[in-house]
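Researcher: Here's a chain I'd like modeled. Treat it as a single chain, no partners, no ligands.
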Amino acid sequence: MLLSNIIAALPALSLPAEDSASRVKLARRDATEVIYISAFYFSILNPPYYLSYAAYYPTTTLGYNLSLPGANDEVLGEWAGRSLWDTWPTPCTGNTHYELSFPSGVLFQFDLNYGAASASPGTVVGGGWNGFNAFTCRRDSGRVLYDVVEYTGAYVAALINCTRV
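Model: Modeled as a single isolated chain. Structure tokens:
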């Protein structure tokens, strides 16, 4: 098949203008970019309170020095709302598909395998795609990604990290 036939068969794309207020212009991404599938953890409440959360970092290094993500690089997970949970993700009864829409306009889709919440740190537990690159998702250690300074005793725990393939 000729390239021109393939191009003609593609649906017309309606992309916003670069100056559109509805989208943020994205910078070129580093090969070490990472998305943390995490939880806001409020330890001062009894029982502890968790909110599902994801944070994007343009380099892996930023995820290890307690840096805050940019305003367009964090999102609450749609699957949790304000529910209580003890493990993440809960329940994980099979290959579970999730989608996160960041304020930048990037949609991150990922699948987690059965047992992701109880896997050993470093174990591959799924994979993802952000429309630009493929990601491998591994169980993280639950370490503190950063402290939530607005709330005493609150922090973000790194539960799954998804790095570029």
